[in-house]
Fold these 4 entries.
Entry 1:
Amino acid sequence: MPDGLVLAAWLIAFAQALLYVALAPLLVGWVRKVKARLQNRRGASLFQPYADLRKLLIKETRVPHTASPLFRMAPYIVFVATWLAAATVPLVALDLPVARIADIIVLVGLLALARFFLALAGMDVGTAFGGMGASREMLISSLAEPAMLMAVFTLAMTAHSTSLESVMSHHLADGFVLRPSYLFALGALLLVALAECGRIPVDNPATHLELTMIHEAMLLEYSGRHLALMEWAAQVKLLLYGVLIANVFFPWGVGREFTPLALGLGLLAVLAKLALLGAALATAEHVMAKMRLFRAPAFLNLALLLALLGLLSHVILEIGA
Amino acid sequence: MTQSDGRSPLAGDSPPLDPAGSSANRPQAGSDEPSARIRRFDWLSEYLARLEDEHVIAHRGDARILAPAHRLVLDPEDWAVAAKLAAAMGMRHAGLWADPLDDGLKETDGAEVDGEPCIRVRACLEQTGDYLVIETDIPLNRPLLDSQAHIYPGLDRLERHAHDLTGVVFTNPFDSAQGKPNTRRWTRHQAWPAERFPLRHDFPLSGETARRTPADVDYPFVRVQGAGVYEIPVGPVHAGIIEPGHFRFHAMGEEVLRLEQRLGYVHKGIEKLAVGRDPAGLIRLAGRVSGDSTVAHAWAACQAIERASGCAVPPRALTLRAVMAERERIANHLGDIGAICNDVGFAFAHVQCARLREQWQRRSRELFGHRLMMDALVPGGVVHDLSADAFLALRQDHAALHRAVEPLFDVVDDHPSLDDRLISTGILSASDARALGCTGYVGKASGLRFDVRRDNPYPPYDGVRVEESVETEGDVAARVRVRMAEVRGSLWMLDRLLDALPEGEIVAPLPTPAPGAQGLGLIEGWRGEILCFVRFDAAGRIARYFPRDPSWFTWPALERLILGNIVPDFPVCNKSVNGSYAGQDL
């Protein structure tokens, strides 16, 4: 690749990473808007999450007396790790240099790093809620992570690579082929995404009830810019999972050349896919109540089972076919 | 004659301590009631006989002073025995309150304790819809009395409340440490010195100090210890917009081993504020005991005042009060059903219920002057009359709400993911509900059918059928179903009440009450039975006001029904009980 192209690729990768941070609140606003419309409410503006973040960023930041330095560091670590993880997932273009540096396993690892610090920060202050939230988060994630790895391995086996980009290129090159393994992996990844992003039926992002919270319980002691970073990171994570599902399983439209037209089309395509996915999420949350906490393992076991079935069906039906 | 006119000369003629005679002397009261309930107090003679077997002397008794309740005066030393015998007969305890008679006015019925100032303690018992008030006098300078709380566990907080406000020390006669007093405070926190008692005459109405109340830090919570047991303190300030109250959980993993409540954070001194008010002022205060039950509490206080003063309330006013009370019931039940669904993350029902409730309350504001119908009742009647237009609007509202709730209730009743959360969550056994004296939807969901409107009907409920809505499961889902049934029942009843709306005045002048006159108000509020006691002083002003919200007994029920559930299920259990913080803190 010529040097000029490498520079352009890096610039695009950088712009794409910025786009993740910029778009994440919009997806949350969209999901909330659709939910409000489904409930016959008008709902807040699509851009309300931006206003909320701005409000939190300019507000005074208070730190509990009992907090250790870890409590102050955690928001930055969580945000950066989530952001880096997001940067490895192709949003509008393929063939970016980040994809060669980081594969799916790095993605999962970065998310685990963010979660690790989030849970530590939740426990750091020593309140009952933080500890409770951290323990529940770990319960959920210890089950969600294997399911997620299984699902991505299914994809990786098809493409013979753990790089997301290769998976997507392989998928695009094959054209539209209905693979049973992909369907199973999609189901597994959807369930994992719901659990990992703290959505109904696993967690309720809109709740004010401290005793039922998972993700929010760990953030209860945060305020000001710390809280803004934590919430922003959660929004980026939701977008990350949305893009992962949209672009890996339905990669059509993603820009394969570094021309403005291809990139613009890629952006439009991913926005359309995310809008659909967000609407589906809002609808699912609208018709379901939250599960009892101890039903969550069964839910995630289903995800693991689906992922395993995907793996098996790949081995049995697709190898050598 | 109606029951609100309990002080009629005829009823007054009934000889004391003669239950057979008194029920025979109330044929007119009986004629207003469903025929099945004519024989009232048929159990009282047995109770008196059992008291006699235990050598308990009931000094005086009558059916007049606190009509429709019977009244018995006992010696202090017989206090616990009387409760034990009552419990053996299956009576429900409906509340306990103390009344310091240190203001020189205790001539009400000639009861004096050797001319010394005394504290009169009253307790109300209920059996098959008949109420019995037992009372005893204890000297002010040595206010010791046996506790009844070991027999009726629901009384524990009422006794501690009575101690905090009047200084009665309740001791447990069956305790191994013979007569160990219960020294745990309940209502006081640190707001006034430990040895001062606000309801006594020497405590100024404005309070004694204007200092900032210190934090109540060393309340002796019962601890559960063991490997893996951890404590979760919740509140008194919560993340949501709810009233303050502290909950101390002991949990093992996510399972709740013990829950202890600490309430009293919204103590407003209602009972002291009532002292010296005129009747109209008391009703305004009563409407603020618990904002969501403003009609029920105001009605209970009106009923007590009107019974004490012998006021004949116009029938139209009574029917309008019932219309408001049923409107209040529907509004609150709708709000609760939605809130329960919201607590398990099912926002759809929450939003729909909130919308219906909002429309309903706007109509209340239009017709009764206030969204919650605050200050719509006055002694002797009501403030707002219904015009013919309003009548039609209400009928249309009822039909519209009925059309709207049916599909909604179908969803709530039969939604798999909702069922998964609500069914078998927070089970209150019938025996626990009975032991604690739960009424309203909490009692009805656990198989207790008691409803004041049906079991001791006050007008206009004596002329309209009250639907029975009883479930036996005792879980959150049952409490939701009882609420749904009550919404349907109240809607049906509202139409019947409006159709039978009598013509005439909406308010009658309140006669000057006799010095020391007393009255008991008994109303089925939306949370359950509200008991209200009022005593006048010599100048016709209020000397004692005690409203007993049903929450006094449903809060302890929450402590029991949560056991064995998981911590994240607490909010929905709590919401399904929905005790009033304000109504209990007073």
Note: The mean pLDDT of chain A is 90.
Entry 2:
Amino acid sequence: MTLTPLTMTTPTETTIEIVRRFNAPKAHVWRAHTDPDLVKRWLTGPPGHRMPECEIDLRVGGKYRYVWEWADGRMVASGVFREIEPETQLLLTEVFDVFPDNETLVEQRFAERNGQTTVTMSLHYDSKATRDGVLQSPMEEGLEASYQNLDATLAEVP
Amino acid sequence: MPSLDHIFHALSDPTRRAILTRLMEGEATVDELCKPFNVSQPSISRHLKVLEEAGMISARIAGTARPRRIEPAAFGAIADWLGRYRAVWEDNYMRLDGLLDDLKDKDGKQ
């Protein structure tokens, strides 16, 4: 059952933010994002794609690797976990083999309220922010604004 | 054909983002762009080259000057890409809904 549609915004020119609520507790949503056997089942991408390989070394400095395959192609995403706050937040780098020079910083936050969990995923395409591991102030403002949106969204939950 | 990779690289620099914001108001020459940004002319020219390679701006010849302007097509490419990206995540999250239901069922039975 889809409770809310996904919302996608661009809080800054180089940030994409996706917010989606799930009818499940935070512990389950966290497992679905961090247990390779579970990730393989849903993070398969566009129709016709599958994820034959998924490796996740869930510790700060640990690596992960996702492999997608489709009829006439294959793509690999990999990166390193920068911050891990169990069931609350993940900060990781992401590089696709097709764009080896572009590292993205991905932030995933998990917030539970009344048995439902909201996942907020921010993708920072700013290469400088990625390199320094520091988010620039306009991004912080953008994130702050979105947290306020998240508060408002969560407040709507009966 | 500029790739989205070029576009994101072009957008990754604050000076280039400021140049784009300025060009949104209308075309400008290199000299006109140097003043507000307090950056040297060669530096501005390098930034303009990156933006041109990404297909985000273009130049026209006006006497000895080459005023730059915004290329709306590049911004359309971003919008298209965002639309496809959104669709992929909608698919992913629909499957995640199903998986989470399975996890709940399993816990309930334990």
Note: Chain A touches chain B at residues 1-2, 5-6, 8, 10, 13-14, 16, 18, 20, 22-24, 28-29, 31-32, 38, 41-47, 99, 101-102, 125-128, 136 (CB under 8 Å).
Entry 3:
Amino acid sequence: MKGWTLTFTLAVVFGLCVGPFYWLAMAATHSTADIFSWPPKFYPGDQLAANTAQLEESIGLVRVLGNTLYVAVVQTAGAIVVSLLAGYAFAKFSFEGRDLFFVLLLSTLVIPGGVTIIPIFEMMNDLGLIDSYPALILPSLSVPFGIFLMRQSLLAIPDELLDAARVDGAGELRVLWRVVVPVMRPVLAALAVFLFLGAWNDFLWPLIALRTPEMYTLPVALATLQGLARTDFGQVMVGTAISSLPMMILFLVLQRQFISGLLAGATKG
Amino acid sequence: MTFTLSRPRERARTRQSYVTRRNIPYLLIMPALLGFLVFKAYPIIAAMYISLTTGAGAARSFVGLDNYVRLVNDPLFWTSLWNTGLILVVQVPIMLLFALLLSLGLNSPLVRLRGLWRLGVFMPSLTGLVAYGVMFSVILRKDAGLLNWLLGLFGVTPIDWLGSPFWARISIVIALTWHYTGYNAVIYLAGLQSIPKELYEAAMVDGAGAARRFWSITVPQLRPILALTVVLSTIGTLQLFDEPFVLTGGGPDNSTLTISLYLYQNGFRYFDFGYAAAIAYALTLIVAVFGIAQMRLQKK
Amino acid sequence: MIDRRAALAVLLTGALTAACGTTEDPGQAGPVKITVWSWKPASDGLAAVAKDFEKANPNIKVTVQAVGNPAIWDKITIDMAAGGKGLGDVLHIGIDYLPGYMDKFPGGLADLRKLGADSHKDAFAKGLWPTVTGKDGGVYAMPWEVNPVGFFYRKDLFDKAGVEVEKITTWDEAIEAGKKLKEKTGAFLVGLNKSAAGSVDMDFYQSLLQQQGAFYFNGQGEVTLSSAPAVQAMTLLKKMNDAGIVADTSGEGTAKQLISGGKLAVLPWAAWAVSYIPDMRPEQKGLWRVMQPPAVTPGGKRTAIVNSTHLAVSGTSPHQKEAYTFVEYALTRPEVINKVFKEGGVFPALTAAYSDPRYTEPQPYYGDQPALKPFVDALTEGADATYYSGDYARALKIASDAQTKVLLKGADPAAALTEAATLLAQQTNRKLAG
């Protein structure tokens, strides 16, 4: 009996969380004129194909999805490597200035995002990197949260495990790859979801840094659909719905690892 | 690319000259440190200089501390500070409490279909800004909004969610809670799963009720995680920008103007970059003070 | 290992040289490429004439990009703040941003006088040229789109209420008609986004100011937000609101939804709406009419230019001459600008364009009324120059806060505006007009 009450409560919460997505998905199947009509449309319409086709025509949906995926994957992979290396050093080595460096890296959490954008833009311009993917990826490789998460979870790995590998003559990178990475899978999965999410949805910086429509990522391309009173919401809805899909899939696939991975980082306060 | 291609001995020979036991950690943190110096430290120092100037481009001139003096005398800055503080005090405790209760439910073996509920409550935190904005502006409309429609089923008269200063703040709290509760619940869930079952079994043997077990086992065991989420949520809310930006534009009558939004308006709307940088420094200082204070308190 | 490091070095060098290679070599032969930043649907209009332009000017290639509005503002602003690097050569800029860019970023936009823009001084609707002229007398943009305010109304609803709209000449009369309308049909007279702080949401209040020849600033750059005309316009809004005939249109799609339900009888929208309303509600064909809005005072002016958009040339563009050639081509030839109008729905500022028959032809959607004519009449009559100033964005925000106070909290118009004017003066270091 109690189980059913709990299940019912969770189902209600689930409805509140997912309801807006359901509405979004339904909106994607209606024409712009019908999307905002009343009462709300909770049933599928017949405009999905038309909206998608228009979207492909106006922003090059397939290409833009490819761009976004490329940027998000490279950025996520790069940031994971950087975080892992730094986290390894902070957790498993004692060296001059360690605490200072750690605090410095973490302190960037308190800097509001908008402040750094103009200097970074000027820098990228001077380097001739504007309108290139390195301009998007490079600034996001050093992620304080990632370094923190890696260090915390690495603290939990016994030193003996590493020393055993070192005695066998393995270099540090090899120790990392062979010993550390396998036990860290869940944490890496959690970090991957977190980083991928950020990269996939990032809007302001790609908007500023990219120039040619062929290079656009999805959020930037969707913004081009907006024009004062005349936004084609049919297209916007399809694009928005599509943009939420990869995240859901990623979370579904990595769910188990993700949850236990978060744990590793969070428990060692 | 992997690190395993070359054989260990070969690697040792070629690297010996410059990779020593002593400098390995420095080499390991080098990429992170470089990223930090180039993309964080340099811009924030540049912003320090900008905060001491006025005008932009060729018209920029040095004005000393003028922007900071102006800040102290600016009623809108204080309004934004007050709004941010208010949302922080109301929203963070509510959200974290919800998240905790939710995680208990999601962890209960009595519940069916747990995997589905977990995915559902986590979905809101996967939303990008565009989707978020479109969904909530439709949800919160007064006359044809989904929320008023839902409440109407229970006989509640339509609420002017975005039109009244009071309800607009509540709307921000609702949107924030919708966005991040699931995220925190999943973090708590991870923590709950790590609490040894033996602790509960022992308490049951001692005859402790559910409430008692919650307070004497669950809460203390979750403490480090609770602490982490409090710090992260506090920092996030102090920098609150997305919700007021897409939902209310800071209105009505500045009742949802936050510090980050005011920063954005001054820089990107009024082209007052020096002043925006000064606001950014004030915000950084506030966040740092809060962060350090919370960590100190938790250490005790 | 060594091999891999070498490979990495090669890759890096390759990436860097490739990146450097993209900067243009000025000595290179071949057509000059210029990029235009705009937003939909205006960009479609411009793209349509770019083809013709390329035919006439084979040495120039034009790429029109729809960047999106409001995304375009963040993009232009950051580029300008970084010294203009990376900007498009031609920029489509709305009146809510143009004065700020001109005032706060000296050199950010090219002075088009040097390229001969002065010769088109009198070609555009009266009142626009001062807007594109800087404090130093430079010309920093060419008027493209002009939006005289209109009064689109549902004739069927007013008929039902027994009101002859055509006889209404002042807003006070309109309010009386609105009360009858609400009683008989349940429809609101107008809709206003009462809580939001966007620029479009202030068009209505601004048009009431402009009808009286007033604005937020005067010619000396002093703050006039609490002047008698400003208070009178706000009092009018309050009266309307208190009569319960103003719908709140905050929230995405609210206005659309009210319109489709026949709950809005009047849209005080500008000229762009002539083609927008039929697109949005094709099924309401024959129900809509349009006329000039009523005046604030009996016998007063019934026209106002609520906003305008312009094409500017980036001050750092290496191809200013070519960019200007395109701007001049697109904006100063009646047949070209009318094609832009047709494809992009942007009402032209070029007065010579209005002699085209399309401006007087009857439109079936509007019950065979020549729907564009009230706007052409308004522009032929001309409007006073509006003193936007570089602090227009701030003024807009503060004025909209005052409007919100009046509409939502029932504040006294004079008190709210006095407070707003004081704040504006303080934040912009300007004097309050005496």
Note: Chain C has two domains: 31-148+307-359, 151-305+373-428.
Entry 4:
Amino acid sequence: MRRYRVILALTALAAALIVPLVAGQFWMTLITQIYIYGLLALSVDLLLGHAGLYSLCQASFFAVAAYTTAILEVRYGYPTLVAAPAGLVAGTLLAVLYGCAVRTRGVYFILITIALGYIIWGAVYRWASFTGGDNGITNVPPPSVAGVSIASQTTYYYFVLGVVILCAFGYRILIRSPFGLSLRGIKGSESRMQSLGYRTTMHLYAAFVISGAIASLAGVLYVYYNRFINPVAASFQISVEVSLMAIVGGSGTIVGPFIGAGIFLGLRNWVSSFFEMHTAVMGIVFIATVLWAPSGIAGFIGRWRGDGAKTKDRP
Amino acid sequence: MHSGILQAINGVSFAALLFLLASGFTLSFGLMRVVNMAHGAYYLFGGYIGLTITRYTGSFALGVLGGGLAVIPLGYLIDRFLISRTGENHLAQVLLTVGIAFVLGDVALKIWGGDNLKVPTPIELRGAIELPGGIIYPTYRFVLILFGIVVGVSLWLLYRKTQIGAVVRAGVDDREIVSATGINIDRLFVLVSALASFLAGIAGVVGGAFLTLYPGAEWEILIYALVVVIFGGLGSLEGAMIGALIVGLLDAYGRWLLPEFSYFVLFGPMAILLLFRPRGIFGREG
């Protein structure tokens, strides 16, 4: 089983590496977008799949990081080496602040994160003198490091791919660490973890901040990919879409969120090319996922592959 | 000073509208444990249907009634065939109802187009009236305040003073015990869900007459309703009243004094309140 996985991973990597050589501009752009949204969905899934928290304000960290980087680049002319880390720090600091939400659980956590998400949306939308309001911030220059500009899409594709792979490895270490294990323990039974002496709220707080940092990284990658940013990036719709991506692809896995992003963005691109009511189609995807595939594609395949995986979990 | 009072009245009239929407949301959560993010779409649909009825019949009152009634079967079908299948999984409910809202929003866009539409109000409500102290204020929004008070008082009487209200309150506390005493809890669910849809539809028509209706309006109003129930506490009717007043006033003064930061003025106090009382003003621990 393990060897199959290695072969599968290497095949996927090889496919990802040759995309720019065989595919046109359209596909490369779409796949870059899938990597970035996949990373954002991965940040959702750290909370959703491991800690059992349903955060619906991930777009806030994403947008704050993106806006910080864009404003520093465009308005103040800072180089990428300042603007990009500053965006990452700004988004993460917001997560440090918003982490107070982990005082609540269940439906209250969901509603509070929705409301917290709207603060950022309202700020970037209404604070027009600073954020550009509805128009957002345009003409973000391509990232440049030490005088070398990453202007070509092919170079940026490889850059994003590299960052995503590094993140995936870091994420793998994180969720296999004792910390990741205790998060899953809290998801299973918080009161039991408390009685074992774990400070569960602090664990969830740490997970929330790490998740915010991953979302911020996705935001910085996004702003250099898109070259402009507007309030849509901070919207509630983005937050729900990425949670759906995490669920469709398979919650609790590393590749799942990326697969989900691929399915979701691919479908939307395809449908919107010929059908005007594509929002309704995406709505139906939401409904269908909740009703028929609550554990996503990966869970569906796992079930289809047989009972082997299932019985292994049993003691 | 003068415009300060004007903003207070603005805030209260917006609160009246928010109460219509939030009371249904909070009651359906209290009784059925359902988070229905499609509630904003009910508002929009009710508003659009009311608009069409008003245009054809020329009667605003018929529009309000029709807009409210038309949403009831929609809400019932969604409750009965979709939301009921999510059990108590709130994330599934949120995703499902967001999906429903996307579909409804797109259908509304297809039928009524993307322009801002205003529900026509009757001539008697169009002018302005002079309040004591020489304040000139639009009649319509003043009547809206009265309407909100009437609905609020009737709901409160229904909830606190009648047998149906007592059963609903008991259901909010403990569903299992209520059904164990032989009361048909499902029938109660249908009743409360119909009431919630009806109020949301009515809110759409009366709100559409001064806020106008447009694609996306469902989300804007929904988030206000969410803040109302977070302030007041999920499942509490009194909380929805107080919450609506707080949110209406904060919003009016925020827009007036700090237009660029009006969302902070609204959400900042909410975040602080949550730090100390995560379940809102009237929410209970448990």
Note: Residues 3 and 94 of chain B are 40 Å apart (CA to CA).
